[in-house]
Design a protein that fits this description.
The protein has 213 residues and is α/β, with parallel strands linked by helices. 38% of the residues lie in helices and 14% in strands. The protein contains 8 helices and 7 strands, in the order αβααβββαβααββαα. Bound molecules: uracil (URA). Uracil binds next to helix 3.
C-alpha cells in the first residue's frame, strides 16, 4: 500500500503502487477501473525516460495512438513535436502520457470519432497518472488542455484564467497550464491558427527552463 503523500487532486485518494514504470505499466495492462478497456484496442501508457525532468500530460489516446499503443503519434502529436522543438524543449527527454489511458470513441460507420472522457473515467485513471508522477518526480508537469488539468488539480482550477501560468501547489510538482495541441488543428482561420500556435510555443518556452542543458 502506498503511504507517500498523494499527488494530484483530492479525488485521487490513492495511486497505484509500483517500484518502477515497467511494473506500473504491467499492472495497467489489466486495468478494469472503468469500462473503456472493453472497447479500446489496447492500453496506451506513458512513454519516455525514467530520468525525464518534464512530464507532458494529454487527454487520452486518439485513433492512431490506440492502434500504435503509443501516446501522441497522430496529428496532434506531430504538431506537439514541432512546437516543442520551436520552444527549445527536447521531447526525447520528456515523459509523455495521458490523463486517460484508453481511447474513448463513438463508432460512426467505419470511423471511430473521439469522445471526451467523463469525470468518473478521469478520476479512475488518475490512479495511474498519480503513480507515474510519484515514480518520476519531475521538475515540471505540463497540462495539455482541460482534461489533463482536471486530472492533475481537480475541478476548481480552470484552464482559461491559468493558461500560461506555472502553478506551484504543496506536495505537487509545478504544473504549467496550456492548451491541447488538437485545439490548434481545429482552428479554421489561418491567421488565428498561426497566432494561437505562437502563443502555445510561448507557453512551452517556459517549460524549456525546467530542462537542464
Ligand atoms: N491526444 C491526446 O491527448 N493524447 C494522445 O496521445 C493523442 C492525442
Amino acid at each position: 500500500m502506498n503511504v507517500a503523500p498523494k499527488l494530484g487532486p483530492d479525488f485521487a485518494l490513492e495511486n497505484a503502487d509500483a517500484k518502477d514504470l515497467g511494473e506500473l505499466k504491467a499492472q495497467a495492462e489489466h486495468c478494469t477501473r472503468c469500462d473503456l478497456y472493453k472497447y479500446a484496442t489496447q492500453l496506451v501508457f506513458g512513454e519516455g525516460p525514467a530520468t525525464a525532468e518534464i512530464v507532458l500530460v494529454g487527454e487520452q489516446p486518439g485513433d492512431k495512438e490506440d492502434l500504435a499503443g503509443k501516446p501522441f503519434v497522430g496529428p496532434a502529436g506531430l504538431l506537439l513535436d514541432r512546437c516543442l522543438e520551436e520552444a527549445g524543449v527536447d521531447r526525447s527527454r520528456c515523459y509523455v502520457t495521458n490523463a486517460v489511458k484508453h481511447f474513448k470513441f463513438e463508432q460512426r460507420g467505419k470511423r471511430r470519432l473521439h469522445s471526451k472522457p467523463n469525470a468518473g473515467e478521469i478520476q479512475r485513471c488518475a490512479w495511474w497518472l498519480g503513480a507515474e508522477l510519484e515514480i518520476l518526480q519531475p521538475k515540471l508537469v505540463v497540462a495539455l488542455g482541460a482534461t489533463a488539468l482536471y486530472s492533475l488539480l481537480g475541478p476548481k482550477v480552470k484552464l482559461t484564467p491559468e493558461r500560461g501560468h506555472v502553478l506551484r501547489l504543496a506536495n505537487h510538482p509545478p504544473v504549467l497550464v496550456t492548451i491541447h495541441p488538437s485545439y490548434l488543428l481545429r482552428i479554421r482561420h489561418e491567421d488565428d491558427a498561426l497566432a494561437n500556435r505562437k502563443k502555445f510555443v510561448l507557453d512551452l518556452e517556459q517549460a524549456a527552463a525546467f530542462q537542464s542543458t
